[in-house]
Amino acid sequence: MAMTAQLKLDDKEYSLPVIVGTEGEKALDTRKLRADTGYIAYDQGYGNTGSCESAITYLDGENGILRHRGYPIEQLAQHSNFVETAYLVIYGELPTVEQRKVFSGRLRQHAAIEPQMQAIFQGYPKDAPPMAMLSSIVASLAAHYPQLATNDFEKDLANFDLAAAMAISKIRTIGAMLYRYQNGLPYVPPKDIPFCDNLLHMMFSELYQDYVVAPEVTRALNTLLLLHADHEQNCSTSTVRMVGSSAANLFTSLSAGICALSGPLHGGANTAVMHMLQSIHDEHDDGTRFIAAAKSGSKSSRLMGFGHAVYKNFDPRAKIIGQACDDVLTKLGINDPLLAIAKNLEQAALKDDYFLSRKLYPNVDFYSGIIMRALGIPVNMFTIIFAIGRAPGWIANWREVAANPKGRIYRPRQVYAGPVKRDYRPIAQRG
Ligand code: ACO
Q: Could you give the domains of the chain?
């Protein structure tokens, strides 16, 4: 028999259906609450609201579990790579040899940016914030490929395979071009090589002399992108779903996700971590000042790379990335003083009651910046790399919304807390 929960309001009893997920997660179905009772469910920031049923990613924040389509992140990080995990996240199964070939082929075929789109870059100041450029250039994909971006779910789903591959591949190329543009370097066209090698090639090769990519570097970049491939209903993914729910096309919805990711409390955190570590280094501090400031409770002085909206024990990605960071630095023979500072800071915070009692642990961003630095990626490109990694998750979530025959436009409610009704007064009568 289906489970229900009883709700008593003003001496009346109501039954709320219970939805149980495949991993046993339970939710009260409040969809009819307002119609039946006149009440809405209040949940500022949606921290305890299931906005959808999704088959993409399972996350148990209390126990530090993250699985994509059932596969533990630890296994994917060890055995898979970014492109294969992207396929898994989007299509639900690990690809066969043939499926993998077709998917990789599409990514390679659609990597280049057409001259008309290349011209867009010239319209930006050289020091424009990279995420602002990325979001607007990705939105322009809808203008350049209107046949793939009709704002009609049925038509856009019919072209989904092509649009998805284009989005993943071109976001990567646009990211590399941003780097070149901001550094006054000419555009390096993509080559017919694997995804991560191609990103490094487009960023770092000179026009006639190829950048030789060390296998450790490709591996580290693969791990980094793979660990970002999806993360359930985070701020940017929910934004993609929200925008997509209005039947907005994939490219437009992705652009909105990129905007959401740009904030320092979300994707911008990796940049903030590096600024924090660098200041500690420059001030010859041991981190004491940052820890003390972080405990003030002010949002602007938080210990960056610490804490997570859902992981309240540990972030499984942080464990993998901490190890990957050690590995790549050792293999490349890099002795980065910021790594030592990060480790000391982590140890100090993990002994401090403020952080322990609030269950604040390092998140994925705490060490990811040090890896990117080791790969030669500048700090202002960190969130761009995050966006390249997160594209498959956004795309998979957009597809779920578009393909849901019972889906409806996302439209939360609010509790109005402004002035009650009052009458308009002409300007001459206002104090
Ligand atoms: N440093 C110091 N104190 C913190 C931190 C931090 N990094 N994070 C949370 N707290 C404190 C809060 O002030 C609050 O204290 P209080 O109970 O005394 O009021 C308590 O811990 C609980 O914090 P919440 O605000 O409930 O945490 P929430 O789940 O809303 O926020 C967030 C999560 C945004 C990630 C937060 O921990 C944060 O700002 N961290 C730093 C930024 C960061 O690293 N973001 C990356 C997240 S991972 C990602 O997006 C890929």
A: 4-50 (2.20.28), 73-264 (1.10.580.10), 269-374 (1.10.230.10)
